[in-house]
Amino acid sequence: MKPLSVRPNTLVDDEHGTAISEFALILLPLCLILFGGLEMGYQIYVRSVLLGAMERATRLTTLQTVDSTAVESDIEATVKRIAPGATVTTTKGSFLQYSQINAMERLTKDTNGNGILDSGDCWEDVDDDGNRNVVTAGKTGIGGADDIVRYNTVVTYKRILPLYRFIGVGDTATLTAATMTRRQPYELQSTLTPKCKA
């Protein structure tokens, strides 16, 4: 029996099986890119549906006979059609004027002129909480005729692919959206009655 002789150059030049090792090197990055694209696409889709629901909420809010809980239910139902397990939280607040949003409540009577709410001073309690403060949320509810309504919605849902395990993000995604509209002037707008500090 003749001994098997292998020339050294033959092993170096042999390319059989290299495709498998090369494919193994690119498989993980390829999967990360593919799954990441799918996850990002789904998130963009959920966000666009959420924004559409918020736009519909602004149209419904302008109506005189609107029920604010029906508007919130509509937002939730619209989002849950594509993200069934999502948690949808909507808050709403109303303002009489745009200038009241994220602004300090105005003093109507400042006895000593120091710009601070002292005993005997009065202020416009825009958010109706009994304190003079910067109004961020507004008065609870959607207000009345000609009022400005702001909706804030937060959607939290489980990610659809287990990609988060590999890139170090949480297993849930959170999206936020806000919209603001002025209601129709179907009657005279109510006015604020100043409150005074005792």
Structure commentary:
This protein has helices at residues 8-13, 18-61, 68-80, 164-167, and strands at residues 87-95, 103-104, 107-109, 122-123, 134-135, 139-140, 148-158, 172-182, 195-196. It is an alpha+beta fold and 198 residues long. A 4-stranded antiparallel β-sheet has the order 6-1-7-8, with helices on one face. The protein has a 3-stranded antiparallel β-sheet with strand order 3-4-9, with no helix packed on it. Helix 2 packs antiparallel against helix 3 (68-80). The longest helix is centred in the first third of the chain and has 44 residues, at 18-61. The protein is elongated and about 115 Å long. The protein starts with 7 loop residues before the first helix and ends with a strand.
- The strand line-up of the biggest sheet is 6-1-7-8
SSE string: HHHEEEEEEEHEE
Spans of 5+ residues with little confidence (pLDDT < 50)? none
Structural class call reads alpha+beta
Over the alpha carbons, how many angstroms does the gyration radius reach? 30 Å
List the topology elements.
Layout: H1 8-13, H2 18-61, H3 68-80, E1 87-95, E2 103-104, E3 107-109, E4 122-123, E5 134-135, E6 139-140, E7 148-158, H4 164-167, E8 172-182, E9 195-196
Antiparallel strand pairs: 1-6, 1-7, 2-5, 3-4, 4-9, 7-8
Concise structural overview:
The protein is 34% helix and 22% strand. With 198 residues, it is of the alpha+beta class. It has a domain at 20-102 and 134-181.
